[in-house]
Amino acid sequence: MERGRIFIVSAPSGAGKSTLVKGLLRQVPNLVFSVSYTTRLPRGQEVEGKEYHFVDRAVFEKMIAEDKFVEFALVFDQYYGTASGAIEEVIACGKDVLLDIDTIGAAQVRKKIPQAVSIFIMPPSYEVLRERLEHRKQDNSETIQKRLRWASEKEIYSYEDYDYVVVNDNLSRTTELMCSIILAERCRKERMMYRIQSIVKTFGGT
């Protein structure tokens, strides 16, 4: 059985990443969402074990000490991290895993797992990003300014490190583009060798 592949999705906060990820999971079969750990509190309708595993700082730091994360980062005073064991469990079954992580975490994953496929979601403009952050009403004005400053000074320039870049100017179109990326990656020769070899054998090959 061919092992599954890791897909990384990153974006500045407010670029629409979470909505796009939900669309991908609905439309692409055999794609499993990696539930990250975080020390922040749940927002809105977020559910434990679905969007995140919500843990306190002591638990998270214990997991760091035990080397249980493939990546982790401290973002706006809160920890976020992806457990390596959960990823291995999915890809060992031949399914693909989707990591919804920030640019710092993505860099860690690419260093440890160079074959991971990375997608950067870019907002159409600074003004659109600001409007989206204000419209979602999840943060106070101070936090929104922090997010915009981080996006302007660091995040937006990270696109250079990613395999693919999509501009989220239309939700349905951007979701289709991201689905196309994943499906195309699944057709790569090296990804299909197990099936290719079994077909070649029916023609008398080895």
The helix-and-strand class reads alpha/beta
CATH class of the domain at 6-34 and 96-202: Alpha Beta
Poorly predicted runs of 5 or more residues:
none
Second CATH tier, the architecture of the domain at 6-34 and 96-202: 3-Layer(aba) Sandwich
Q: Number of DSSP strands?
A: 9
Computed over alpha carbons, the radius of gyration is 18 Å
Kindly state the mean pLDDT as a whole number? 92
- Reading the helices and strands in chain order gives EHEEEHEEHEHEHHEHH
The CATH superfamily of the domain at 6-34 and 96-202 is known as P-loop containing nucleotide triphosphate hydrolases
Fraction in helix: 40-55%
Termini, distance in Å?
Answer: 17 Å
Shape label: globular
Instruction: Give the biggest beta sheet.
Output: 5 strands, parallel
Strand neighbour order, sheet with most strands:
2-7-1-8-9
Q: Briefly note the CATH topology name of the domain at 6-34 and 96-202.
A: Rossmann fold
Count of helical stretches: 8
Work out the strand percent.
15-25%
Write the layout of secondary structure elements.
Layout: E1 6-10, H1 17-27, E2 31-33, E3 36-38, E4 52-54, H2 57-65, E5 69-75, E6 78-83, H3 84-91, E7 96-100, H4 103-112, E8 117-122, H5 126-136, H6 141-153, E9 164-167, H7 171-186, H8 193-202
Parallel strand pairs: 1-7, 1-8, 2-7, 3-4, 8-9
Antiparallel strand pairs: 3-6, 5-6
Notes on the protein architecture:
- A hairpin with a 2-residue loop joins strand 5 and strand 6.
- This protein has a domain of 136 residues: Rossmann fold.
- Helix 1 packs across helix 7 and helix 5 packs antiparallel against helix 6.
- It contains eight helices and nine strands.
- The protein is an alpha/beta fold and 206 residues long.
- It is globular, with a radius of gyration of 18 Å.
- The longest helix is centred in the last third of the chain and has 16 residues.
- The strands form two sheets. A five-stranded parallel β-sheet has the order 2-7-1-8-9, with helices on both faces. The protein has a four-stranded mixed β-sheet with strand order 4-3-6-5.
